[in-house]
TrEMBL record:
<feature type="transmembrane region" description="Helical">
    <location>
        <begin position="177"/>
        <end position="194"/>
    </location>
</feature>
<dbReference type="GO" id="GO:0055085">
    <property type="term" value="P:transmembrane transport"/>
</dbReference>
<keyword id="KW-0813">Transport</keyword>
<keyword id="KW-1133">Transmembrane helix</keyword>
<dbReference type="GO" id="GO:0005886">
    <property type="term" value="C:plasma membrane"/>
</dbReference>
<feature type="domain" description="ABC transmembrane type-1">
    <location>
        <begin position="130"/>
        <end position="324"/>
    </location>
</feature>
<feature type="transmembrane region" description="Helical">
    <location>
        <begin position="141"/>
        <end position="165"/>
    </location>
</feature>
<feature type="transmembrane region" description="Helical">
    <location>
        <begin position="263"/>
        <end position="282"/>
    </location>
</feature>
<keyword id="KW-0812">Transmembrane</keyword>
<comment type="similarity">
    <text>Belongs to the binding-protein-dependent transport system permease family.</text>
</comment>
<feature type="transmembrane region" description="Helical">
    <location>
        <begin position="303"/>
        <end position="324"/>
    </location>
</feature>
<feature type="transmembrane region" description="Helical">
    <location>
        <begin position="206"/>
        <end position="227"/>
    </location>
</feature>
<dbReference type="InterPro" id="IPR000515">
    <property type="entry name" value="MetI-like"/>
</dbReference>
<dbReference type="Pfam" id="PF00528">
    <property type="entry name" value="BPD_transp_1"/>
</dbReference>
<protein>
    <submittedName>
        <fullName>Nitrate ABC transporter permease</fullName>
    </submittedName>
</protein>
<keyword id="KW-1003">Cell membrane</keyword>
<feature type="transmembrane region" description="Helical">
    <location>
        <begin position="40"/>
        <end position="61"/>
    </location>
</feature>
Length: 339
């Protein structure tokens, strides 16, 4: 049982908990304590040193908005942002409750009366904008994967196709999202026309920009991984007359999964960085817009709020990478590098 738990922890990237499990089952205490200190204690000490240096150094930096906020001030702003979210949600609940009471009274007077519920139009909170950014980046990432994986597999299986597409990949791969954004904005505005749109244009613009910038790592890694498969495997598939589709799903993709997931991890990381920049430049809803709005606001709390957003962006980026590492371990049955 404990061996299975250790395997699950290693697959999930929670290696620092493995010594605890081994201690509980009676293994050498000194050895496991040393391993626990190396995997959990040292990172914790490094974090505490960073917070100390930040706290001391921040007090020495004076900006036009006041002293650079230290950890305590940033934490207070984080608490304030959560409180603001709760207050806004309470206002929304009260808004909908008033409508329900009003509609109930209207139906009581006239059972055939037409009633409707209006949407709450309050200002999005910091928590709301986190949700918007996550939805946008996952939409762009999924679209990029749906394009990159099939094209990458096809290129890996066909050197001719790979040679044809390679120049396009090399040309478009280094293009900045700041260059793509104006083009995408104009194309979406011209093509996405509807009286009752399912998605906002700003959402489509950000998602497409993420797609265009994040598909290349997955495409390249998938193509290289498939091209590197032992040719004997492909030949065996042909000998036993497997269809091309069966060869792809039973031989090519399983063999290419480790490198493919490396590409997916890189793509998701690129997509997250691209999204924040796109939201700042295009003023699309999300964390990027929150940072820009606070910068323009210029209040005494703005620096602390911006730093909360920066830390949040970093933590979410770390969690997204951890999620992809865990999926790689579960699906490819191979521990990713860094676990």
């Amino acid at each position: 049982m404990s061996n299975k738990l250790i395997n699950y922890l290693e697959t999930a990237g929670l290696n620092w908990m493995v010594p605890v499990v081994r201690l509980c089952r009676g293994e050498d205490a000194r050895e496991q304590a040393t391993e626990l200190f190396n995997k959990a204690g040292l990172p914790l000490i490094a974090l505490l040193v960073f917070l100390l240096v930040w706290s001391v150094g921040a007090s020495q930096v004076k900006t036009s908005l006041g002293v650079l906020p230290g950890p305590a001030a940033v934490w207070q702003q984080a608490v304030n942002l959560v409180d603001e979210h709760q207050i806004e949600r309470a206002k929304a609940d009260a808004f909908y409750q008033r409508q329900e009471v009003r509609n109930a009274a209207k139906l009581e007077r006239d059972p055939t009366a037409e009633v409707r519920i209006r949407d709450y139009t309050g200002k999005p909170t910091f928590i709301d904008q986190i949700g918007t950014s996550l939805l946008t980046v996952f939409t762009g990432f999924v679209l990029a994967s749906l394009i990159a994986i099939p094209v990458g597999v096809a290129c890996g299986l066909s050197p001719t196709l790979y040679g044809a597409i390679s120049p396009l990949v090399q040309i478009f791969k280094p293009v900045s999202p700041l260059a793509w954004l104006p083009i995408v904005t104009m194309v979406v505005s011209a093509v996405y026309i509807s009286d009752d749109p399912l998605f906002q244009k700003s959402f489509i613009t950000s998602a497409v920009t993420v797609t265009l910038c994040s598909l290349w790592p997955t495409l390249i890694n998938t193509a290289v991984a498939v091209a590197s498969i032992d040719k004997d495997w492909i030949n065996v598939g042909r000998v036993i007359r497997l269809s091309w589709v069966t060869q792809v799903f039973r031989i090519a993709i399983p063999a290419a999964l480790p490198m493919m997931f490396t590409g997916l991890r890189l793509s998701l990381g690129v997509g997250w960085m691209v999204l924040i920049a796109a939201e700042m430049l295009a003023q699309n809803p999300g964390l990027g817009k929150f940072v820009w709005d606070e910068f323009q606001n210029g209040s005494s709390d703005s620096l602390g709020r911006i730093m909360v957003a920066v830390i949040t962006i970093g933590i979410i980026g770390f969690l997204l990478d951890w999620l992809m590492q865990t999926l790689q371990g579960l699906l490819s049955h191979q521990k990713p590098a860094g676990h």
